[in-house]
Task: structure prediction
Amino acid sequence: MSFEIIDFHTHPFAKPEQNICAHIDYCHMSPDETLRVMTELGISRFCGSVIALGTKTAWAEVQACNDEALRLAEYYGGAYIPGFHVHPRFPKESCAEIERMAARGVRLIGEVVPYIDGWAEAGHGTMYDSAALSEILDCAEEHRMVFSFHSSGEDEMDRMVEAHPDLVMVAAHPGELPTFLRHMERMKMSKNYYLDLSGTGLFRYGMLRHGIDLFGAERFLFGSDYPTCNPSMYVGGVLLDSLLTDDERRLILAGNAKRLLGL
Result:
C-alpha cells in the first residue's frame, strides 16, 4: 500500500554555507540531489526554512535566507513548501516579513533555530518567552501562520505556549523520554500544539504509540530534519512500525501537514 508523504521539517539549500549536514563530503549533496533523495523515498513535498550558519546581527542576513527559500520554491516547482525566519531581535521587521510572506501565500514560519541564528546572548536562553517574540507571534496568529520551532528551553517553551494557545505551533524533535513527556504536557496546555518526528525520539520503540494513545495521530507530523538527518530512517520509522494503523500513518505522513498548511 502506498502513502502520500510530506516531510514537514527540512532545510533545503542552494549554497554550501546553507548546507547543515555534518558529513557533506560523503553525501554528494546538491539542490538536485535533495529532490532525488525525496523522490526516491516517496516524499512528494517537503517543507522548512533555509539556514545559514552564524549569528544574525542584521535583519538583512535573516531576510536573505527567506528570499533564498522563495527562490528554491520556484526552482523545485511546487515540491518545496517554503518556511521563513523571524527573529526576536528584529520584531518590527519580523512582523513586516509575516505580512510579506502572507501576501505571497506562505503560511509556514520555520523551523526557527535560536541556537544557530543567535536569538539571545550566550547563557540567556532561547527568548521563546520574550516580549519581542510575543509581539511577533501575535502577528503570526493574526495572519493564520503555523509556527515551527526548535525544541529548547523547557520552561521558556511552556510560557510561550501558555501565552499563545490559539497559534498553531509545531515543535521539532520528540527528544528522549523526559523531553517527550514535556511535549505531552504542552499538548495538554494547547489543542494547537503539535510535534514533528524529526531528530531524536522516534527510534525509541513505542514512543509514537504512546503519544498517539494520549492525543491521537492528529497531533504528530512526519519530519526528517534533512540534510542533518537521513530521511530514510524516518520514513521507515513510520511506514514499518507495526504498532501503527494505516489510518494513523496517513495522518502522520501527510494528512496533518495538509490540514495545517491548507494544502
